[in-house]
Design goal:
Arylsulfatase, C-terminal domain, eleven-stranded mixed sheet, globular, binds magnesium ion
């Protein structure tokens, strides 16, 4: 072998070694993917891992075992629109005008929606070029300027408001209950009058709601498969289990929990599909999945509404059952598995995702959410100590530590006999000892009442009045 050949061989060897070293080099750190699976009107007691004896949720139970189970996780309101505004913006809906004491949610004749000045999770993540998709129920405005694609989402597929809003005008009070009772989700034409949208276009009306959960799932799975090479944010907001209840043929007569149980079991199947897709795509180490709901069960509908388990009250009220949601956060490469003892809220997701993605928080505004990223990683306790429970535009209750003070309550939250009570002196419950909010301990803890009253005063002083978007029509 001559010198020239030796030189060439050595150069080739070096090149090969270099190529191999390059192939082994780790990918530049990619920010994590986020998936939020958001149910509509799911009760605190409706999952196996949260005590349900009648509804089987093996996929969610496994997700809870492999991830974090949050038993004290709150929403920003006990009805759809304001709760969703809180999740999307990390702010109490009173700050964005997405609440009202007169019209509690947006309706098909509403002209308002989430203002453009608000920054959604999707918009915040666009700083790092996330690809973003909203699949399912939006309910933050159905006119073009308020739709997901006007708020940072690259795509939208779903019903823009509640699945019972095809009725115009809606029957009221007893008539409405009688209508639901008579129809029991069999009248597809009647319930189907809601629109299914793709982007800003209506693509189906009437909508076959029996296949809705399955179709949303297929869309979500496709989105993950199509975007496995890029950081993504998927917001999958099921219309179920909001009444009227619908589920696929496969989920009829499968649950001891009846029609409602079948609906939840289909959502559980959907969760399984998503986690399988994430694993198959090799993304399980770099994806965080959050499962929760917008508000508690619609107890007025009895067996077609869910269960709050050990909590008092449900949708529409400010007892725990209305605003504490069964929550699971999963992400094998990021989330340290275990029970989380501290407090969390949907409003905390925006700051948490911003921290994990390494993007700036929306500037020039008050945020009500806390960064929970350290809790997710198992490196600290939750920074959240306080929860404000709004009904419409008013603070009705506040929790600080284990104490919860009620200034007003409503029971039942819907239907005949609905009674609003103002409490002076306020009620005080110790949630650590009295999860069901039954033993008023106000008389023995005057100093706690004072402290909580001061928190409410301080909070109210931070609120600037803005027009209500829910009252525009
Ligand atoms: Mg809801």
């Amino acid at each position: 072998m001559n010198t020239n050949c030796v030189t060439k061989c050595a150069a080739l060897l070096l090149l090969l070694l270099h190529v191999e070293a390059w192939a082994d080099a780790p990918e530049p750190q990619r920010p994590p993917n986020f998936v939020v699976i958001f149910c509509d009107d799911l009760g605190y007691g409706d999952l196996g891992s949260f005590g349900s004896k009648t509804i089987r949720t093996p996929h969610l139970d496994r997700m809870a075992q492999q991830g974090q189970r949050w038993s004290q996780f709150y929403v920003g309101a006990s009805v759809c629109t304001p709760s969703r505004a809180a999740l999307m913006t990390g702010r109490l809906p009173i700050r964005s005008g997405m609440c009202s004491s007169r019209r509690r949610v947006l309706f098909p004749n509403s002209k308002g929606g989430l203002p453009q000045a608000e920054v959604t999770i999707a918009e915040a993540l666009k700083q790092k070029n996330y690809v973003t998709a909203c699949v399912g129920k939006w309910h933050l405005g159905h006119l073009p300027e308020y739709l997901p694609i006007a708020h940072g989402f690259d795509s939208y597929y779903g019903i823009p408001y509640s699945n019972d809003m095809g009725l115009t005008p809606q029957p009221k009070g007893k008539k409405r209950l009688a209508y639901y009772a008579a129809n029991r989700a069999v009248d597809l034409d009647y319930w189907g009058r809601v629109p299914l949208m793709e982007g800003a276009r209506i693509i189906e009306r009437p909508v076959d709601q029996t296949s809705l959960t399955r179709r949303y799932t297929e869309r979500a799975v496709q989105f993950i498969q199509d975007n496995r090479q890029r950081p993504f944010f998927l917001y999958l907001a099921h219309n179920m289990p909001h009444v009227p209840l619908f589920r696929s043929e496969k989920f009829r007569n499968v649950s001891a929990g009846g029609v409602y149980g079948g609906v939840i079991q289909e959502i559980d199947w959907s969760v399984g599909q998503l986690l399988d897709t994430i694993r198959t795509a090799g993304l399980e180490k770099n994806t965080v999945v959050v499962f929760t709901s917008d508000n508690g069960p619609w107890l007025w509908f009895r067996d077609h509404g869910g269960s709050s388990g050990p909590l008092r009250g449900g949708k529409g009220g400010t007892f725990e059952g209305g605003m504490r949601e069964p929550t699971v956060i999963w992400g094998p490469g990021i989330v340290q598995p275990g029970e989380v003892a501290g407090l969390g809220a949907t409003m905390d997701l925006l700051p948490t995702f911003c921290a994990l993605a390494g993007v700036d928080l929306p500037a020039g505004r008050v945020l009500d959410g806390y960064d929970l990223s350290h809790v997710l990683k198992g490196k600290g306790n939750s920074p959240r100590q306080t929860v404000f429970y709004y009904l419409g535009t008013e603070v009705w209750a506040v929790r600080h530590g284990n104490y919860k003070m009620h200034l007003k309550t409503v029971e039942p939250a819907y239907g005949e006999g609905k009674t609003v009570t103002a409490h002076d002196p306020p009620l005080l419950f110790d949630l650590a000892a009295d999860l069901g909010e039954r033993n008023n301990v106000a008389a023995a803890h005057a100093e706690v009442l004072e402290q909580l009253a001061a928190l409410v005063m301080q909070h109210r002083a931070s609120i600037k009045s803005v027009p209500s978007q829910l009252e525009i029509r």
